[in-house]
Amino acid sequence: MSWDFFLPVSVGDLVKTGGINQYVVQDVVPPKQLPTYLSRFKAALRSHGPLRILEHFDTCYSVLQHCNSVELAVKEDALELLIQVVSGLAASLPALLVSTSLSGAERKEKLNAVKMSVFLLCKLTESLESDSYRQNIVTAPAKGKKGKAGGDGMLQWDSEREKVLQVLVQLLQLDIRSLWSLSLVEEEFISCVSCCCYKLLENPTISHVKSKPTRDCIIHLLGVLIKKYNHLLGASVKVIQLLQHFEQLPSVFAQAVSVWSTEYGVRAIIGEVIREIGQKSSEELAREGSGVKAFATFLSELGALVPESMIPNISVLITHLESESHTMRVAVCEVLGEILVRVLCGDGLDESGKADRDRFFDTLQEHLHDTHSHVRARVLQVYTRIVNSKALPLCKYSEVMELAVGRLMDKSINAVKSAIQLLAAFIAHNPYSCKLSSADLKKPLEKETTKLREMKDNLKEKTPVTVIKASELWAAMEPELLVAVRNELEPTHEEEQEENTEDREEEKEAEDDRATAVKIAQYLRVNKYRNAVRLCIRAHKCFPESERFASLSTVTPENLMDTLALIFKGSDEDTPELSQDLPSTPQKEGEKEGEDGELKKQEMLVQYLKDTETFALQVERAISVINTMLYWKTTSVVQEAVQFCVTVCEFSVANSIIGVRKMLPLVWSADAAIKDAVVQAYRHLYLNPQGDTIRAKAQTLVDSLSELMVDASLGTIQCLEEIVQEFFGSGSNLQSTAIQVLWERFTGKRETSALHRRAAVLLLGMAARAEREVVLSNLDTLCSVALGEKVTEDFLLARDTVITICSITDHVRQSKGTPFRLPQEHQLFTCLTQALAEGVVMEDPHWQSFMEQAVRLIYFLAESPDQLCSRLLQRSSRLLLDQIAEGGEINKDVSQMQDGSQESSEQGEQVNCVCLAQLLAVCGCVAFWQVSHLERSVSTELRRRRGETEEREEKEKGPASKTKQSANESAMEEELGLIGASAEDTEAELIRKICETELLADENLLSSFLPLLQRVCSSPGRYSHPQLTTAACLALSQYMMISPSVCEENIRLMFTVLERSTLPVVRANSIIALGDLTVRFPNILEPWTQNLYARLSDEVPSVRQTAVTVLTQLVLKDVLKVKGQVSEVAVLLIDPEPHISSLALNFFNELATKDNAIYNLLPDIISRLSDPERGMSSEDFNTIMKQLFSYITKERQTESLVEKLCQRFRTAKTERQWCDLAVSLSLLSMCERGFKRLQECWECYSDKLTEPGVYQPLLSITAKLRRGAKPQFKAQVDEFEKRLTAVHTRGLENVESPEMDEENQTGGGSTEKPVVQTPLPSRGRQKSRRGQAKPSVSSRGDESFVTPQKTRKSKKPVITFSSDEEEDEEDAVMAESETPKVTTPIARTSRRARLRN
């Protein structure tokens, strides 16, 4: 063979004239003839083997040349033939390569065949890959539809592509380098194969699971090229290039690089690739965009695959931690995390490994404070993985824990979630204790610390047990010392110089012969014989007269030894002196080591307890923060907080139950994800007990639920019902056993505490919601145990029992069938009435709560409950009178007490005030539930019976009796919505008439107590007992619910009590009662609205809290119209009590959801808050306004407010009002339209600009507008700022231009009028408390921003709460002139609609 095949740069180069002995394609076959030529090639290949490619190269080349025009079948046939050629070469070459008799011609023939077949196969593969990709794009299936992945004939390309790669791997794995001269494979050949691989990697589906075989083949083929064919540098460059352009490749190349470094042993590839990435500057990364994300993903995944190989190259990556790309910072931190988890962990690290580990941890800690939130969040996640893998050193726990708690305050939601996850991991994997409580750890720590201190003191006080004599030590050291003496007496020249140097040093140190002797003895004790001998010789020269060194006048070994023996052992008189200066002889080593070991153990124990306490304190701090997150608006944060609460509860952390209880109300959340998270948390904690038997599981379940119920509020119990009743309705064996355990606890069969008995009965009530028979079939048991003879011993158990029985009533179960009620003679009602009546004359603090629930149950469950309660009131009154009679007082008949209140008042001083208060409480409660019974139960029953009657009549009439006329009438009524209206109105009117005329008629028992209630409420001086006053006021408010006439008659008295009572509880109760009356009789209460708002400035925090809560409900439910009095709520935004300020903030948050509500109120609020009479400080005003203006987000609202506020400058009379208006303007989120309006209103405020308090806020507006403004708008802002500054510095008269004067004259205005300034109020003026208005301040409209003038008011009678004469006490009510008049009737729903609701 006379020619050589050279791989061309491009396919078309082979048809051109080549060099000497270079192969050139002679005949390019036309497309139509290709099938014939391929058939010939196939026959030749079958008969003569793969070398036939040398003769038929032109045929396959023609397929490449006409690739775009030939049919797909032709290309597939050519590909199949080329695969056979390469496969055949791979099979035949091994025998030839090991042969020593291979001639040059044969070698050239084989080499040309290899290069030709590989070239054709790679190029044809690239062509088919391009066609496949193009076809996939054209025939891509529509979204949501299944379609073919490619065109006809291309479906098998994935498998064919895999065959191509496999045969190439087979061929290149052979040592075919010997076919080339000097075994140097040409670069074009390697490039041809590698380019084919990289072309296949560009396919977007290469990272999919279905492409894994192809992906693995490409990785192995490139691995062979890198290992055997010197493709290392090319591969590293190509990896970087492709990562920048193809987003599917990071995970592929991470896998590839790890395979190349591990399976092929090419570790240098990691260094090359990382060095390329590390050398990229921040500017390059900023330009590349998506490339940065690819690099980051690549590094993260590579670090996860081969973390140990990343350590030598980590210094290159560390530089990216200072770059601007947060994505790269995240990737480097994740790499560090993988190294710390999988390499630099455990106790077997050397000093270098520990240093690297500590350095990496320090780096991660720095980036917990990274400027980018994503980096902070990912670093927290890295730490979570480290903690979960138990790779965090113990010394780092406290430090990282503190940082994690700090990240709970992060502004980023993702960072907060990651911090919660990290803290949960800390608790779950903590190395300290399974129960974390700083309170429990305090005592053990103090005990062990005291013990450690005592051990240290004992060691100091102990004397040596055994002392070795100096003579014994001398005998032991004498042989070695003699050798040293002889060596020293024969010194060399160098040693003499050294000796002279040391002698000079010793001469400086030695003060006298005694000190020198001590020094020599110390040298001998520590085996420094040479130094001792030299010092001894020198000492004779320094102290020739000393007796210790006198024998050294002639230096011989014997004399020197005698002198040293004398110094070390000492003479009889010198021994005591020297022994004081010499170090003491050591103790027995065994005992000393034992004591040292005990001391070290104690020190470790104390340190462990200290670390545990620190960790527990940090956990408790984290719990307090995370508990507040349970009510955040972000669902994912709430879910993480719930999961955290579960974790800390499982580890019995102190105060963990607080979070578990706090999240319970979230079962009512509108967000299904939050609700499900809470339900699952409670199921996990309480409804999934552990135990060997069903009984043990039931016992555990009841114990855990009982702990949750102990001291739980009524709201908590209602929330728990929502979760627990599903379990009790399951009907499982565990559920029935749990109910059995609960009954055993309640009845006392098992010894248990009173708290757990109450919890058991409440849990039985929850079970009854799912299955009524649980309680209904055991009513007798409930009555006998809790409501029987011992009921007076535990009214709390009786109350909870009544609540449990309520769970079987229709009102709780909301059943719509025939009402379920029990007869009056039932044992339950006998027990209840007896317990209530006897409790009236007892002074039990828990009787009141029992009474309220018992009366409620009577009206819910008894037939004719009004009769029962009437007998209850009679019996209670009789018992109270009997109590008075037993006390030796004049006995009065019950009828006399019912006939008039005069007799009662006369003996009021003899009645026990607590008992009278309890009787009045029963009266009020009965009145309230009687009205509720009429409007709910009776009305509902009337509607039900009417419905049944109508249905029965319809059935009796039948379809034939319907006439056309009646059909038309019913259709008309239906269209007008009048069906059933007349009947319902009749029923409603009946109920209203009963309430108005019958409930308080003279023959009704309730009416007998009303004068007494009025008397007690209006005579606080005579009836001053707190409990009596409280009960009377509450009962009177409940009586007022009966009818409008009773309400109107007593409304003035109620507001008198509200404003003038000295008891905060009475004022708070009055607010709640008046709120209920406002809902029931809005027209009667509307004129008194101002008095309700006045309680927002009450001195007692609990009253203010109640007032803001009630008014929030009334306003948000549209019962009260939102008026200017809302400014009183705004003042509470700065209340010193955090809970009250949060309620006020919640009020405005909810109000902001109503269209334009806050926008409409703002001008009036500003007027009221900046009123000089209020005396509010400017700081408080700014704080309130900043919050309120945050709700103004619409441009149109901003523009309108700018104009309104500017107009207010005209009517404002004081500098303080000007400043407040200017501050309000600066708080608006100003837009271009608002700024234009501000310029148009220049005349309103220009004359006030000399005041700094006006100028500075307006100047701040220009600073805000200038940020990010367009050049044209920015110029307008700058011009306006110059104008502001000029007027501020020189005054308005000196700045206005003639053109502006003309414009003002044309507009009819004049700017020459002097500015009249009203002086500020005196600084010594008395300010109202907390800057809040007094109740007497009258409201003003939007346009009355003028300082109010004093007006003459009618003199009000002076009211005092003292025990005056009886005739004067009637005046302890507001005068008629003080009673507000009805100004605006409030529209309300019809009586029928209210009854229906």
Automatic annotation (TrEMBL):
- Key word Ubl conjugation present: no
Under the cellular component aspect of Gene Ontology, which terms does the record hold? condensed chromosome, centromeric region; condensin complex; cytoplasm; nucleus
Looking at the record, which segments are called Disordered? 489-514, 573-598, 940-975, 1289-1397
Annotated ranges, domain Condensin complex subunit 1 N-terminal = 74-235
State the Gene Ontology terms under molecular function: histone binding
Q: Which domain of life is it from?
A: Eukaryota
Instruction: Provide this UniProt record's keywords sorted from A to Z.
Output: Cell cycle, Cell division, Chromosome, Cytoplasm, DNA condensation, Mitosis, Nucleus, Phosphoprotein
List, as start-end ranges, the regions of compositional bias called Basic and acidic residues. 940-959
Record localization = Chromosome; Cytoplasm; Nucleus
Question: Its GO biological process terms?
Answer: cell division; meiotic chromosome condensation; mitotic chromosome condensation
Q: What are the residue boundaries of the Condensin complex subunit 1 C-terminal domain, all occurrences included?
A: 1065-1225
Q: Where is the composition biased (Polar residues)?
A: 577-587
Q: Where is the composition biased (Acidic residues)?
A: 495-510, 1363-1373
Please explain the role this protein plays, according to its UniProt record. Regulatory subunit of the condensin complex, a complex required for conversion of interphase chromatin into mitotic-like condense chromosomes. The condensin complex probably introduces positive supercoils into relaxed DNA in the presence of type I topoisomerases and converts nicked DNA into positive knotted forms in the presence of type II topoisomerases.
The Swiss-Prot or TrEMBL record describes its family as follows: Belongs to the CND1 (condensin subunit 1) family.
Kindly give the PANTHER family that the UniProt entry links to this protein.
CONDENSIN, CONDENSIN COMPLEX SUBUNIT 1
Q: What is this protein called?
A: Condensin complex subunit 1
Which species does the entry assign this protein to? Parambassis ranga (Indian glassy fish)
Q: Which gene encodes it?
A: ncapd2
